[in-house]
Amino acid sequence: MHEEALTSVDYSVLLPVSDLNQAQILGRLGSILAKEHEGEVLALHVIKVPKQLQLNDGRLFLRERRPYIDKVIEQARVLDVPVHTMIRLGRSISDAILKTVHENKSDLALFGWPGSTGSRDQMFGSVIDRVASNPPTDVAIFRHRPYDKLQSILVPVAGGPNGRLAASLAIALARNTPESTKVVLVHVSLSSSNPKDAEARAQNAFRRATEGRRYELIEQRVTISDSPATGILEASLDCDMIVIGATRERLFRNILVGNLSEQIAEKAHCPVLMVKRRSTVFESILRETVIA
């Protein structure tokens, strides 16, 4: 197992990478988010060793997997962001990621989109679902689509904590692009809503999303639609990226994000970053003692 010593920083972004393309994409995005906080990137690749083999036999794959890590290093150096690397051997990829999160005290774990699994129990694959069902750190999943300049980032807000995290990450991205980038906060009001109540909810959502956050290029939009997904997708047509918080799922529903986020990631014309904040201690205890 190859590791490099970590330094003490205020913000650390963990990038679990599984192939070269993902390493390049996540390396750049993760480095931008780390740069905002003068933090660092930790590139992680996990070699899953079958039970039929000794754990140390996984060392045979170290050389061929090293390019994945090197690609992240390359992206981080472009932005002058400190980068550390780790290749772990293990029986379970999700266990290795969780162990790294705890050891490194990571502030954000950034995953690449593996696509829908077709299973009701697993929305984004067993590895991400395991990590994000009761996340010990903030979690983001990036659904990459090619884009040129990042001039406008759409952030749907409804007043929840994941919307606040989405706004925070969108502002971090916007501040660190070479071009001038605006953050567009959109609140979707359903057509059946009372106009006065809808306006009050929208203003509350905007206030909660931006509280304590300063950025000059923030635009607020209220759109009326028959469904949240339709409203968000229509609002995104003139934007270059969507950063969306996980919908507020029921406490005992052990999934990553609601169907809304998945719909947006599948149907949007632009890249989508889905985010979910870390679990509170109370939520963690309930999930571990009641769901298990």
Q: Per the principal axes of the C-alpha atoms, what is the gross shape?
A: elongated
- The number of helical runs is 9
Unreliable parts: 1-7, 116-124, 249-257, 281-292
- Major sheet summary line: 11 strands, mixed
Mean pLDDT: 83
**Helix fraction?**
25-40%
β-strand amount: 15-25%
Distance between the termini: 31 Å
* Order of strands across the main sheet: 1-4-3-2-5-6-11-10-7-8-9
Explain the overall architecture.
Helices cover about 40% and strands about 25% of the residues. By secondary structure, the chain is an alpha/beta fold. An eleven-stranded mixed beta sheet has the order 1-4-3-2-5-6-11-10-7-8-9, sandwiched between helices. The longest helix has 17 residues, at about 20-35. The relative contact order is 0.13.
Question: Which terms summarize this structure?
Answer:
alpha/beta; eleven-stranded mixed β-sheet; 38% helix; 23% strand
Q: Which helices and strands appear, and what pairs or packs with what?
A:
Elements (H helix, E strand, L loop, with lengths): L1 E2 L8 E5 L3 H17 L3 E9 L13 H17 L4 E8 L2 H12 L3 E5 L13 H7 L5 E6 L8 E5 L4 H15 L6 E9 L4 H16 L7 E8 L2 H8 L5 E5 L13 H9 L4 E5 L4 H11 L1
Parallel strand pairs: 2-3, 2-5, 3-4, 5-6, 7-8, 7-10, 8-9, 10-11
Antiparallel strand pairs: 1-4, 6-11
Brief synopsis:
The chain has 292 residues and is an alpha/beta fold. It is built from 9 helices and 11 strands.
